[in-house]
Design a protein that fits this description.
Length: 143
């Protein structure tokens, strides 16, 4: 997607992530939105399908994602072991058809999974991301 399209979509993205502290210029989400068009490598993992309708079935969709996610996660871990930072992002999927055109991907038979910026990290002092407490999302023997 062109840089001007990325910038024009910034506000809806930031609104969606309302828990981020907009007054903190070091907040990782705001920082990524501000520099995404400067990232040296953007990886777009894709799924090749005969037709997008193949993913209408929940079992097929689960199996497909179950194949993609471990592969991409392994790539991201390997990148990290070499000093490269990555992050799985999906907001560009709101513009998937335009991104497919820009990248020369056949939209009807290629499903984009994510947009993963890849770059050398600045420093090594990372902090845990804000998360919902595990007790609110993990259930044992009951829902």
């Amino acid at each position: 997607m062109a840089a001007h399209e990325h910038r024009s979509s910034r506000e809806p993205l930031l609104t969606r992530f309302a828990t981020a502290d907009a007054s903190d210029p070091t907040d990782s989400l705001h920082h990524l939105v501000d520099i995404l068009d400067q990232v040296p490598v953007l990886l777009v993992p894709c799924i090749q399908v005969g037709s997008r309708a193949e993913l209408d079935d929940p079992a097929t969709q689960a199996g497909t994602w179950g194949s993609v996610l471990p592969a991409v996660w392994s790539f991201m871990l390997a990148a990290r072991s070499r000093g490269l930072g990555t992050v799985w992002t999906t907001p560009h999927l709101n513009y998937e058809r335009q991104a497919a055109t820009l990248l020369g991907l056949p939209y009807e038979t290629t499903v984009q999974c994510a947009l993963i910026p890849i770059a050398w990290t600045i420093g090594t002092q990372f902090k845990p991301a804000r998360r919902v407490p595990v007790t609110e999302v993990v259930h044992w023997d009951h829902w």
